């Protein structure tokens, strides 16, 4: 058996590190790649189990409450005269509840990364029960986060929300009489975005070139037109749907089940034309039950998937601009988990998170990534503690950039995600070095100020469904030096400079908070401290 | 033949060269540059001009935006799109009777292909009115091209002689081609390049290229930076002036921290944006405070994010004297045009929002007395298929676009109308239009009006030499 990449590293801060060798800062830095928080108890767990042992424990941790379970527990499946079955905002509440609560946060962190690769956004989802649509999609990602890419891919294709989002739902076969053609949207995006990408890749994620030095396209329009036939005839599964007549509508209200169950085929509406794509041939008349898994096999087994998916997962979790060698090691893990299995996502997460390049701070000024706004906020809320005045914790849609985060979970503006993996901020040193920096696509004159303004209010006062308690910090609020060290470790993985810590410490000391000060005074100080840390570029750039 | 890497001919470089020419005496090969200098100097003229790009993200359905209206062509359209009996609604076809109010009555120009007449989508009365009053023009079938292309050349294999634009039919890449003449990852847009040429004319060079939507490569130049503004104006970091539960010492620390020098590249570039935000906020909001616009941007259908963006652009134009702006390039956008499904449900609302936003914006420029100084144009990822899916249309290539403003030679069509057909040589299948006008030609026409000279065009549009027509004449 060949060595898996995570144990092959020679760097002894890598996956092979024995648990006792892991410093607080190393543990915090690892945790901020792998999940949302690096609280004292998280750091202790990593130090006890080691990086790889901690990941194994997280892989084995039972799932917490799902998005669908939360919606139902909150009564958001109730049929009311107000027509709440059409309200999308419960979907935002669900998404934030998932980001802010539950101890299965490594799973959720990774699922959030998957949600930016297999993108479905709540934005255009309408009709009955949009929250259930997006929740079922989120739950699907969470369910398969530690499973196999191949299973996830086919489940994604059959998911109701994805069906609505990229038009597989209701996609009809060709009709020569009227000139009607199958919709090509899903056929295009499953290739361009969910599996193989536009150009043939080497295992290290660099472009293959033809004899003229040009990139080689992976597919043509003709491949799309052919593959589109496979995705015809699918629609919501009505089998478990119960319909209820209500006096305020002249049509019945369906139960939420169509959003939960995989779509089903109506062979009458399915195209039985032959399919020629990516050099494969499917004869005319082939039954969709054979065709559907086959095309997913073809896409899954394409050599591009490892580097295409792997590089983006590195970008999501660790750094914007990984070396080709790092990408190649993740590709190798995708291609073979060490036991001959392709597409094992656990092996991918390990390869991404345990790689020597992930576990080492290089000191290169171009290293790292800009933390995503959603993750900054989730980290803060989970670290300082938030509670609802009544009921459960959640937040609202935070998509606006002028007075919120400029990003909200499961609210991508399009299937191309909040930012592109290939985004290079114009006229920067990154552009001169041709270094990709996806998250910088959200950074501009409006969002930089809007983010600080949002925090200024929210980290002190929160909202009725998420009041900050600052419980872990109230006991040290009076000791600014201890407090700043605590925040530096647990929010910034020790990456605030001494100078910045001193500036923050001096400013906080001016508040004159003592052990005897009121909790409100202490919270004023603690919120100020978090604000200064979270606005600091030394925190915002995760190295 | 198409990918010449032109050296940068900025206005400064041209002026330097002009100095050399003056010293050495004009020689033949340099005459072209010299001619360019005279035109480049137009940027220093004491006037104001603004270009406003309205980007329709998702790929606009051209066939339900500019709709065949004469009976024979309408009937072909209705047949292809599944129209109902008696020219009524059906499939993804608009009923002919619904088009009466928005029928276009051109004042000039040659007869169109198959004697085509057009109407606009019924939700576009403002644009139809502007067209009929000569303030709006329609550019027919424009899209990305590297060279002029026939269908046979498209279907042939000679990519050396007949290269194709990269990644046709792909959203993100075609957005990038429209905005920056290259597929995704391009970092310099043609609006930004125009900004490079013009920025020295502006007192605040940062206010040359402005996006009221998110970050967009269109307004990124080699030197000109994109300045991003929200619909409510520039955003102040509140706690610097109103610390609330914090205090002045914390405010002071905040200012130090968010503007801190760093040896880390990412931190430094992050801070650069924050600093620009803080430096410009007072200047911009100060100037905006004196702009009183009575034109209403309130719209029929509730939220209209495009109207909100165009309102702040109008207000910035209103502040151009106070801000010392002479040449500005603006970017605004509306998403949601990828109507694979439910086209008849969603597309009318979207084009209605475009119509209201552009209509209000034009009225605002009239109110401010700058209607002939401001030219607005539309762009989109691509046109869509003329053929239908179940209840929508698919990714296409060429499409029809609008140019609006007091300087526009409006009330007529430019370019060539495509046949209403799924099998003629002006489409490449399912009514995906093979463009007969290149984005470069469309854009170069706007760039000339803005003040770019003949000699500067190849630098902004590297493939422009492949096309005979660099001035469509619509403005």
From TrEMBL, chain B:
<dbReference type="InterPro" id="IPR010869">
    <property type="entry name" value="DUF1501"/>
</dbReference>
<dbReference type="Pfam" id="PF07394">
    <property type="entry name" value="DUF1501"/>
</dbReference>
<protein>
    <submittedName>
        <fullName>DUF1501 domain-containing protein</fullName>
    </submittedName>
</protein>
<dbReference type="InterPro" id="IPR006311">
    <property type="entry name" value="TAT_signal"/>
</dbReference>
